[in-house]
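Usage example:
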Amino acid sequence: MRHSGATRSGSNLVLTGPTGARPGAVGFLTDTTLCIGCKACEVACKAWNGLPADDFGLTGFSYDNTKDLGAATWRHVAFIERFDGGDGRRPTDLQPFQSDWLMLSDVCKHCVEAGCLQACPTGAIVRTEFDTVVIQQDVCNGCGYCLPACPFGVPALSATDHKAHKCTLCYDRLKDGLEPACAKSCPTDSIQFGLVGELLARARGRVETLQGRGVAGAYIYGDRTVGGGGGIEGLNAFFILTAPPEVYNLPARPELPQRKTMPSYLTTIGTAVALGVAAFFSLRERGGA
Amino acid sequence: MGLTGRLKNYVGLVPNPISKRTREIHARTRGATATVSVCPYCAVGCSQLVYTKDERIIAIEGNYESPINGGTLCPKGAATLGLVNSPDRITTVKYRAPGGARWEEKPLDWAIERIARLVKETRDAAFEETDAEGLPVNRTLAIGHLGGATLDNEENYLIKKLFTAGLGIVAVENQARI
Amino acid sequence: MPGLGARLGRGGATTFQQDLANSDCIVIMGANMAENHPVSFRFVMKAKERGATVIHIDPRFTRTSALADLHVPLRAGSDLVFLGALVNHVVNSARWHTDPFFKEYVVHYTNAATIIDPAFRDTEELAGLFSGYNAGRGAYSTETWQYAGSGTDPGAAQQPEQDVQSREGGAATGRPEEARTDPTLQDPHCVFQIVRRHFARYTPEMVERACGVPRDRFLRVAEALVNNSGRDRTAVFAYAVAWTQHTTGTQIIGCCAILQLLLGNIGRPGGGILALRGHATIQGSTDIPTLYNLLPGYIPMPTATPQHRSLDAFLGAERLETGIWHELPKYLISLLKAYYGDSARPENGFAYDLLPKIADDYSFQRMLLLMKDGAMKGLFCMGQNPAVGGQNAVLGRQALANLDWLVVRDVHEIETAAFWHDAPEVRGGAVRPAAIKTEVFFLPAALTAEKDGSYTNTQRLVQWHDKAVGPPGAARSEADFVCRLGQRLKELYRGDDSPRGRQIAALTWDYPTGGPRGEIDLDAVVREINGYTVADGRPVPDADALRDDGSTACGCWIYSGIAPQEGTNLARNRRGDEGAALGWGFAWPANRRILYNRASADPAGRPWSERKAWIWWDAAEGRWAGHDVPDFPATKPPGYRPPPDARGLAAHPGDAPFVRMADGKGALFSGPSLKDGPLPTHYEPWETPVGNVLYPEQARSPVAPTFERPDNPYHAVGDPRFPYVITTYRLTEHHTAGGMSRWVPWLAELQPEGFVEISPELAREHGVDNGDRVVLSTLRGEIETRALVTARLRPLTIDGRTVHQIGLPWHFGFGGLARGAIANDLSPLVEDPNSRIHQAKAFTCNLRKKG
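Running the assembly step on the lines above writes:
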């Protein structure tokens, strides 16, 4: 299924392009070669979505005091220092665009096949008309099933409201025709918002340009080949990277956990069905009484 | 594909219901008033749009029209809403008496009156009309001013005018040297 | 400010941020642009997309370096050796001598050909001193720093014993036609040859010894610059306070101006020098200054000297025969009319006597000492946090504690307001609050979105911000506060006929007020700044309409034209475009975006090349045309030659782009306007672990103002107790002394705590692991903070020995959400003689692991 053709069995949706994104799908291209690590995206996201500051503390890990995506952190700029250090010899001739100090603004990938959505037993997680994946806060009951179901570890439970949270790709803004807050704020257009198809075409051109200018290691993370395989069918929020995915703490071969854990997945469904049936009878009895 | 794949698609993708709240959600800036402003932090001069509803600031974003920032902002600029609505922002006049152990709250008019009298008292006690050579100098060294690089040009104009030209305060300085 | 002003005429960026995208080579030095000006950096990225080379020269590998093509680490405080070596490389390069562009630009547009007084002696001849040094006074007499035969009194422009900065652009005085020139640039006394000799020992080898930069890497920078300058290509420099904050800061910036003049890059698209400033209107607060030594529009504050004893004397001393400064009487008299209204009359010298006269240095650092020593008893602090941001902050807090009264206006309880109960010395018990007699007022301030007003950004662009809502609670704007204070003081002095009573009584202060809070109408202030006709109060169209007879009033002549008619405020112009964006805001002067843009055309008025066309002479129309407002008399033809009796701008020929300079030329040799010499010379930072490899007998600036006393001690050159170079800086996530960022949760969480950056090598020497607590010490103080061990910092080999550099962000303090030790508890009070800006970018310290 990973490299299957234009249609997917079990669904009548027509796939467009090699990420499997649906027509009209919108997403992010996060081009790390343009990122200056300013964290405007982190703040703009929090300011728009009303997310509180959380997890105060100096980590000592470069300039990354955010550490990870979380319930109140939907953009996270990772900083990776890659000097050989030690022997006192450090590079001064740099590859054009970001080098030696890598910065990447991580975000929910809005997977074409989203593990979180598939695992959600309450129907709280939905795929929107923009092909983005959104947790409906009024439906979520905080069961946390979506957490292990995400191969990227994106959704997180809030210690405040005990519900699952993650990037909504600014669903409220999209409905008003506004671009997401992070992409809007990004000073160097490292974060670009648009139709996935267009972004992907742009990304391919960009990778070609980068390779032509000496950044041999530039590639796209999030198509079916890299980052979007394993049943995910591509990422609607994808990246241009210049180092192996693990360097950025991204999985090299992410997979939908459902592919591996179908028995338990089925158990979940079975349990849900059983509970539903039980509830049905219980309510019926009460109603009858 | 088989049964598991089919189930997966059905359970996950297709019928999850869109809640009423989700259906009705929209940008909170819809219907808000947008006022053109400038970022208060560094000197790049990013244009901001300040969105207000009912005399309250609800969002501050970059202004697409600006030839400088084209809608973008840095983290500080993006945090301007947090500055305006800062939880620790002080909105009352505070006064600490000489040698005092704590702040007291005071009315604004009281403070201005008290400050004006202190200015007069200090100035009157240390106003130099002429210097040792008899040249007119009309100045006082006993009062100083700091700040200005974060204020408005018009405010700087008024400060220099009142303090230096009107009161003879020569030690008027700002962050240009900091 | 004077770094650019003394060489080019105006203390402002010569270009605008968007124009970086047109550059072929961008050198960022003395700045960390991606971190401190992230939005400006988008234009660097645009240039890069178009193929420009980006070079970052900086002690640390920063977020700017990560996006550069070349990072050149150098020792903090050695910039002038590097820049001097670039000058030396350029004037000896084959390309410079074979491509006729360079000589054509330099001979016509700079003072390279001008003959200097043969009595002038260079630092190369006097072991690091220029002629005229008076060791007793620690100052120069500048008689020999003049154009030969100019016959003017060099003391007229500047009194060396006075701590008064001359008007910018006050280069060599005298009429240009009186100066002798050698257009072949061969005369040994011509500026070009003097410059060439001056920098002859600034070699790649010297760069390697002093800066720790291998010579091949230096040469790559030099070649990139030379190859990206010329008719068809331009290179730009972007700098910030890492150039300014040195005892030689003015000269470092000036050296860049010399370099860019020699490369023909000033006044041209994609070229120039972009000063990156750090506060919303730090440019504006210099143009319309809250500075002790300036009046609005860079008119010098009058001094208590015979030369300034009357209006006529002042104008006689400060007015230049040629160039724009010939019009000084119009600007100053219009200012006096704006200040004193009807009290300023021709028969009383327009109330010039009422203006206070300065006799000394009252700049920021000196103020701290005046407070500490008890001469200054009251202080207003409006949007500044000296308890954290001022050098030797330990002394600074003692100074605050010695005041009778202190008024702080801010939005948070910043350290300057809280020092009496929250400073480390109070919390530690060393100082009791009861022992601090200062009466402290905290008045809550309005923020930008809560008031009308304008900022002037880093490219001289004045932009208006509209009020969105009123300020909360008792918060008010500074305009409102100052307006009320002035009204009340005028009342308190009513009927007082003493000079001090007359001074305040004469001040015009009848601004209209309105709205629910009775706030001042700022349009009235804008009108006053723009200028108006006294008789009818109507705005003047521009500075050309100002008069010296008292019929016009104008608060700041360089902003004149910003509100040219009733109801128009060009700072509110909001029509942007991809080019010069002349419809967006108002750039002083006269909405020009690239300064000195006459130099974008050749002497005959044609663009140097199609690719770099900006303005040009339209012979058919008989005026200058192009993409910008010409920074030149609009109808003066390129071939214009001044008649012998011409004055003002009419005395400049048609190929003199630097309209504020007396001779209209860029000053490679700056004459007497700078206190530390007409040419940039490398001196070591006041505190340095190494000697001066260029001038071993003159390690440090001979004229840097120092304040050596028990509460501000210095480390000797090479003091073994303080072996490390330390440099302080900002982070993207915070702003200056933190008052607008450390209390904001979204910013505080990004950089939640102070830290010091050290290299793995230095960490190993002290057994320090990443995250360990360390103690930094100087003779001023000690601070404890956490170590961020990173290979982005690196030791350098300086003159054969290893020198470690330590990096310390200076935002932090004891208040707010993000806290940390105060970096400035370590730094000394010592400064640049011209700008009086402190040296924070290079001093020395020791480090130990916290036991």
